[in-house]
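User: Hi! I'm working on a homework problem where we have to compare a predicted structure to a textbook description. Could you give me the structure for the chain below?
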Amino acid sequence: MSTKYRRLFKNDQDEGHFWPSFTDLLTVILLCFILIFIAMMIIKSLQIEEMKRTIDQIMGVREQLVSDLKDEFSDSELEIEVDDKTGAIIFNTEILFEYDKAKLKPTSFQFLDAFVPKYLDTLLGSGYEEYIAEIIIEGHTDRDGTYLYNLELAQERAYSVASYILSDEFPYRHIQNNLEEKLTVNSKSFSDFRTDDQGEYSAENSRRVEFKFRLKDEEILNKTREILGR
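Assistant: Happy to help. Predicted structure tokens:
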């Protein structure tokens, strides 16, 4: 066989060895991707199940905590309201403040001395403390005046309440250390107004102070809950 034909035959043999090897390599790579994808899906499935269990646990804590707060204050003479969904404690600012004022009334101290220990004993007791990320004192106003004026007024009212609770005058000093780590104050001005029984805007009901709590990782869990469609 001439040198020319021997060279062509050799090239054909080399190509014949090359392409099956290359195909095998592609097959192996494809199988690796498939295995990685399957592993990721299994991990994702396990993560979703874990998130579901965590969500159920957190939501169960909220439901039980709201129930305990309602039991504690349903028959109370303090004239406060417990929100059925959030567990927020709501009371009219006239209990604490004169109209358009941010200084606590003399009679308000007796109210806070009676309310705060019961509230915190429920919120930070019975195994709930590890779930509580934040305790919020939130001020709300009516629509009289500008938004910024009422924003400042509501903030000052919430701060006045927090300032007394954390002061030397507050008689229950043993709860202050735990409270300092979690307590914040907030103002909503008149953005979250309330209505009367007829569904009409009520200035009197809108003027209020709320004690609220936030559970740990609640925002992440709520977003996860939306993603999971629950």
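For your comparison, note the following. Strands lie at 81-82, 89-92, 132-140, 183-187, 194-195, 201-202, 208-215. Residues 61 and 128 are 8 Å apart (CA to CA). Good luck with the assignment!
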